[in-house]
Amino acid sequence: MPGENLSRDEARDRGLLLSVDGYDVALDVRSAVQRGDAAATFRSVTTLRFRCSEPGAATFADLLAPSVTSVHLNGRELDAAEVFDGTRIALEGLAAENTLVVDAQCAYSRTGEGLHRFVDPEDGEVYLYTQYEPADARRVFANFEQPDLKAPFTFEVTAPEGWTVLSNGAQEGDAEDGRHRFATTRPISTYITAVVAGPYHYVADSYRRTFEDGSELEIPLGALCRKGLAKHFDSDDIFTVTKQGLDFFHDHFDYPYPFGKYDQAFVPEYNLGAMENPGCVTFREEFIFRGKTTTAAYEGRANVILHEMAHMWFGDLVTMQWWDDLWLKESFADFMGALSLVEATRFQDAWITFANRRKSWAYRADQLPSTHPVTADIRDLEDAKLNFDGITYAKGASVLKQLVAYAGRDAFLEGARRYFKRHAYGNTRLADLLSVLEETSGRDMAAWSRAWLETAGVNSLTPQVTYDAQDRITELSVLQEAAPSHPELRPHRVAVGLYRRRQSTLVRYARAEVDVAGPRTPVAELAGLERPDLIMVNDDDLTYCKIRFDEGSLATLRARLDEIADPLARALCWSALWGLTRDGLMPARDYLDLVLRFAGRETDIGVLQSLHAQARTALDHYSAPGRREAATRELAEGALRELRLAEPGSGHQLAWARHFASVASTAADLQLVQGLLNGTAKIDGLVVDQELRWTLLAPLASHGAADADALAAELARDDTASGKRHQVRCLAARPSAEVKARAWADVVEADTLSNALVEATISGFAQPSQRELLAPYAPRYFAMIERVWRERSIEIGMDVVRGLFPSWQVEQATLDAADEWLAGHAGAAPALRRLVSEERDDLARALRAQVCDEAAAPRL
């Protein structure tokens, strides 16, 4: 349809008509440091050179801007008021070769889309950065906003004196009169162009590599952050991971990094984890840790660094033609990020994190009503925005891990090498990748693709076993099931592991790999072996599936889950048990009991933190209402016990402190939290730094034990951007009808908060422990969401629709209200309907889980 939401058909037609020779983009952002309305817009002048295969034809350029000063096409001035409608510039009577010049006033953003402007409350400094994916470059300069119309870009940015200014290419010469000119890029898509500007703290380094043929490569490296974060900036560690990643990808891809320099900017109020702009990668600044944190947090940052680096090849060098094949970059980056993390850095247990966290995200997404194949049907840009999901990232990466097991690692990597060389600086579709993988593996990739990439849903694999009188296996099979809505039974290359208790430890004593196909697959290699205590289907996590257990294995896990020696196997069991709980097959009380008994002996800190998050979800959403108060008390008692037992100063101790704070609710618990905050209570080795102080303040605020004055005093102590976000979250968490009304109005009725403060306000507002206080907002939610979706940017709209859905009200009435809205709004934007249906599905799942928990027998 016309306007902001570009359709796939429109992009296809324009892509057939045009080819782009280059962009010259000149931005003047000196207005950013002015006050009031003067800081609302900046000047953007774009010179766009392109060819047309059908002279005389008409098309359009994309631009989202408050006003256009002038438009010139092939030297002829067009009437800007006639050709520009606020989202598009109509272009008629095209020549074979064309030059379009657009002089516009574009708007600074407060939503993290386009050119975001941030004023640091700590020192008043102004920071700018761009974020475009999938289609927000048009908020900054006129363009053809679709990934297949690649072109070289030359940027010039005029900025206040003394600012650091970066773009994709290296700066050419010194800035004169604040004007910075950058080297022309290789052909890239609009959505990965970038500008970062402000008084950033910048650290330089370099990477050098000598290849086997004697050629040498030097890549200038840079890392930058706001000045206020410089004292926390561990750039040495960031550069270490960066160099390790560049070594890994050069070793395995046989294609030198193609984009010159490599800057990494950590920027404020960022909506994503990071963005792979070639030569100028942007990250959320929360990856700069202001206090003590866990090894899992450093591993997570390293994973994101390597994920974005993998995109330099998968996504930037070779780009999908349209967003249908978004997986061609995101799935590969997710998989290669984990692989390089394990093989090139100190984080050699990253496959455990992948199995426990990333795949959990995928399993949830694949059971939603909006599930879709890895290669998706993306009708328009709103569809594209919502498909940056657990299927496109984590399921796709899991499928690639299965592909490596299916086709072989060498064939997979050789296929990647051929893919880069064959399609460098071009655009591809699914068939282009399959053809090279078929060449290198000798496998039928079309059949594999149909099963894994072109169908939706997740299979369940369950062992079925019989024994003889001597307690030896007579037959062991793997049963495969699929949901009726998505009945595809896929081929799985899996390992089946047998575990037995030896000296109080569960260890694997046998393993067999098998190709599972159809509803039942015998595992003949394991027949005749002694009875195991635990049978693990998908041992070593080779495939993507939900793991189920036979009765004997489940009984073993209930009794001695902590005795599993291998941390990956233990993580897979935890993940499977959580899947049973989410599916309403295991009562929430049983899952919480397992966490209480065994989480304290979990050695992997990332798994432990996942258990804490899942326990909160089980408590808040899956526990029977009559059980919730007692369960909260038991979880807090267990968390405090483990906090006191944890090694002083360890990451485990910090994780248990955070978890205890998150479940503290009784007067005694809150008194201890207050004591840790003000220093009257001590736990050996626990350092209560500024970040932990805010963590401790959160439950005090939500239970009415910290008022506005206390939160203002804490902000005075931490008068930073981070401190402001924490304070806003805590203010909205207070248990007061007036507080909730103000928070709701700030997010729903006004449009003055930045994206970061919208997120913080919603997070504080939606407290599951305040169900009665929040009850009046359920009907208000359904009354306002269509208006908000229409009036706000898609990023803010997504935050509001997801964050304010009344998930705290796990009742049939809420489910009925969601169903009534969906039935009565068939014509609403498909992306909005998708978001509501996803939240509705989570609510229905919570109701089923509560029924399961209510029916469960009391624990003895």
At a glance:
The chain has 860 residues and is of the alpha+beta class. It contains 28 helices and 27 strands.
Q: Strands across the major sheet, in which order?
A: 5-4-7-2-1-10-12
Distance between the termini: 61 Å
**Count of separate DSSP helical elements:** 28
Overall mean pLDDT stands at 95
* Rounded radius of gyration (Å): 28 Å
What share of the residues lie within helices? Answer: 40-55%
Number of DSSP strand runs: 27
Report on the biggest sheet. 7 strands, mixed
Ranges where pLDDT stays below 50 over 5 or more residues in a row are none
What does the overall shape look like? globular
Task: Please explain how this structure is put together.
The structure is a single chain. The protein is of the alpha+beta class and 860 residues long. Helices cover 43% and strands 20% of the residues. The chain has 28 helices and 27 strands. The strands form seven sheets. The protein has a seven-stranded mixed sheet. Strands 14-15-16-18-17 form a five-stranded mixed sheet, covered by helices on one side. It has a four-stranded antiparallel sheet with strand order 8-9-13-11, with no helix packed on it. A hairpin with a 2-residue loop joins strand 23 (492-502) and strand 24 (505-516).
